[in-house]
Amino acid sequence: MKIGIDKIGFYTPHIFVDMAKLALARNVEPEKFTIGIGQSKMAIAPITQDSVTLAANAALSIIDDEDREKIDLVIFGSESGIDHSKSGAVYVHQLLGLNPNARAVELKQACYGATAGIQMAKGHIALNPDRKALVIGTDIARYGLNTSGESTQGAGAVAMVISANPRVMELENHNVYLTNDIMDFWRPIYSDKAFVDGKFSNEQYILFFNKVWEAYKEKTGLVLSDMEAICFHLPYTKMGLKALRTVLEEAPEDVRERLLAHYEASTTYNRNVGNIYTGSLYLSLLSLLETKEIKEGSRIGMFSYGSGAVGEFFTGILQPNYREYLNISGHKRLFASRQEVSVEEYEEIFEKTLPNDGSDIDLDVSKDPAAICLSGVLDHKRHYVNKLHK
Ligand code: CAA
Fold it and tell me: C or N terminus of the chain, fewer CB within 10 Å?
């Protein structure tokens, strides 16, 4: 039985800051951010968006009534969850009006949570082929103003329906994964900003890629020329390229050119959104499939990396007519409707956070065009509104 991605949708907030302007404000050359890091625009989450609303908005764009009835597993992969106890998946389940007979859980392992979710969903569908699973990678990446990580922030979510007989991509079964306890990036429970050892994180990302790729080749006998493209977790678009370059010499010239051209296509969305942690690899897949016509039946390599660290390499096969099941025009509209804010406005939005002393707050959702917004906190409980259900 084929199991894989049946639908895939994306959401990012309506505002962004231009990276060249951010560079000038930070006294660095714009090319450092636009070429050295490889980012053009950075999505910013207004106070009315959190990891729950981003996830729900991403899922809202893909699910229909049949999915609402058949989804009986909701997995919320996130590094920026909103509660130490209750999972974001339960909120999303309610906001989407899903079948009550469902499991709903949150998975955490830095940027790897959604990949773990997909693999667990595969097992669930293998046992329950007539059901569907909703897996979401959702995050707001925060390092802090004037930090070295600032240029690699972002906000957004990717939602996927995992099912039997998937219409977009069948997931193959020879995954290779690796865990090692390292401190390259982490976020202590008291902090709303990540701590990072930047250079070390880059080295470990590449090391993990090299190790899982070597093990994958050994396990499967497949080589670079068997991959039409490789999508990477993209904390910033230069990162995946650095990893890809370490293996390119294994392939003949035409395969190298193909992988580099497809890598470029796989970074277009991420370049304009920034790091969305758990969703980044899947945003890269969307970018590849929606900006380039990749042949049906092609094998796509996927490298997932979650600092701390867990890495995984796996592959998928594009299904017949898969492009019909993508939301290319919807995502074009989403990008086109975004508004630029100045660096000063971005700094103000960044600093405006929910009270952490337990007090209440009422939020104005009228300026946020998202269907699902955070409307406030009352008695320590977050309240959400779905503007489509008035
Ligand atoms: N023109 C062109 N390129 C320029 C330039 C210019 N004028 N000035 C600098 N550059 C280049 C540099 O040469 C460098 O390129 P290479 O890495 O290819 O040599 C690049 O711009 C970045 O320069 P620096 O290394 O000096 O930048 P930095 O010290 O500000 O740090 C960073 C960059 C380490 C990515 C930092 O932003 C950071 O710590 N980010 C968060 C951590 C992260 O994203 N790590 C990635 C792996 S971990 C992971 O994947 C998990 C996750 O999501 C967090």
Answer: C
